[in-house]
Write a structure and sequence with these properties.
204 residues; alpha/beta; Purple Acid Phosphatase, chain A, domain 2; five-stranded mixed beta sheet; two-stranded parallel sheet
Length: 204
Amino acid sequence: MNALLKKLEPYKDYTYLFVGDYIDRGPDSKGVVERLIHFCDEQECIFLRGNHEQMLLDAYYNNNLDMWLMNGGKSTLASYHGTYNDMGFPDNHLEFYRNTRMYHQTDDYFFVHAGLSPHKTIAESVRDNEDIDQFLWERSHLNAFDTPWEKTVVFGHTPRPHPIRKPNMLGIDTGCVYDKLGYGKLTAVLLPEQEFVQQICLDN
């Protein structure tokens, strides 16, 4: 992540929007979040919530530990030197997780962690709380031939060897954590240019 941010330094006048899943995939989730907290002191940032941040919040506030621990939570807990009874999250990290957004939109783009229903307009989806909950998990749009979306949807969540570029659809999860052919890259996209900037995983 630090290496990708270094490559993006020429674009300091941009707003940096992160699409979620900052944790549970790697040995230093705490360090990732600490870096992002400090980064937004120097750069205009928007942080979306991923399904992994939601699972952490559910574990912390609703005692729903099993779901989180089965999906990478153990590595995050270890990075905080936490236990099941005392997770060890600093207050500013909890505030970071709580303040992540479910979506963000501009005149031309709709940003979301995973996706949204390919059978509804964006306006219809944001009026439906159940649909908003699915913004963290949705994948059905990936197989849709066409959508009624009013603008381009930018998302992560589902790793692919290359960014997804389809009508009204930009997917930027290129599986940085996966050591297999074509994956292992962290990807950003410059908008409106639709130019991709990538960093190969340094572990590989």
